[in-house]
Design goal:
The chain has helices spanning about 5-25, 35-45, 50-65, 75-90, 100-125, 130-145, 145-165, 170-190, 205-230. It has about 230 residues and is mostly helical. It folds into two domains: about 5-200, no CATH class; about 200-230. Helix 1 (about 5-25) packs across helix 4, helix 2 runs parallel beside helix 7 and helix 5 packs across helix 8. The longest helix has 28 residues, at about 205-230. The two termini are about 35 Å apart.
Length: about 230
């Protein structure tokens, strides 16, 4: 896959992921664990939920680096893009908030599938894992615990903290925590995608890739110019 196609995947993936997150929140039956935590922080400090998402992601990324994991361009882009997209979608008010359970449940499920599609596009770009996924991997390596248990510890911790901060925890929180994995499996099966086969680039590798691409174009332009002069 060319770097330009990968960039399109990254851009589209982060937007679709953000749209899915907003839908799950507008479902109004309980936020997903991380979103409940970020909403609790946002209300506590009087900031937007998008800004809260960015701040939480930055802290998580710093912890990940301290734990020895490397970040990718996609990791950095994800930190800022998702928060900005969430705030824009909230500001535009195109998505109504549901007022009863069944419509809310339907919107939640649509949101979870969009999150899964966005995650597929984002991972397929191979520009680096998201900060929360990197934290899960870092804990697995450092604490020597299974990845499922690592994810469970993180999800339960942020959920309880979000609830204590006043974040909207409800039946939708449980559905999101259990359902996102199912939605990912369904989407990955449909597109025949194996996330474990993706080799993510670090920041250094992406930078070297870009430099090689620029140097190649400079060489091509120089060669073409020489040929024209020779004529």
């Amino acid at each position: 896959m060319s770097i330009f196609k990968r960039l399109i995947y990254l851009l589209a993936g982060t937007f679709v992921l953000s749209l899915g997150i907003v839908l799950t929140m507008k479902a109004n039956i309980g936020y997903a664990p991380w979103d409940a935590f970020q909403k609790g922080l946002a209300d506590t400090f009087g900031i937007s939920i998008g800004t809260s998402s960015i701040l939480v992601s930055v802290v998580v990324a710093v912890v990940v680096v301290i734990l020895g994991e490397k970040l990718g361009f996609g990791t950095i882009f994800n930190i800022f893009a998702v928060g900005i997209y969430i705030d824009i979608l909230y500001y535009l008010k195109w998505i109504p908030e549901m007022q009863s359970f069944l419509p809310g449940l339907f919107m939640l499920m649509v949101g979870l599938f969009l999150c899964a599609i966005g995650t597929y596009l984002y991972i397929a770009s191979a520009f680096g894992a998201g900060p929360r996924d990197s934290l899960m991997v870092a804990l697995e390596r450092k604490a020597k615990i299974p990845v499922g248990l690592s994810r469970g510890i993180i999800e339960v911790t942020v959920c309880i903290t979000g609830w204590l901060l006043g974040g909207p925890v409800g039946i939708g929180t449980l559905i999101s925590a259990l359902g996102i994995g199912v939605c990912l499996q369904i989407v990955f099966a449909i597109v025949r995608f194996e996330a474990t086969t993706v080799e993510h680039e670090t920041l250094d590798q992406t930078w070297q890739h870009i430099k090689n691409l620029v140097n190649f174009h400079k060489f091509s332009d120089s060669k073409e110019s020489s040929l024209q002069k020779g004529k």
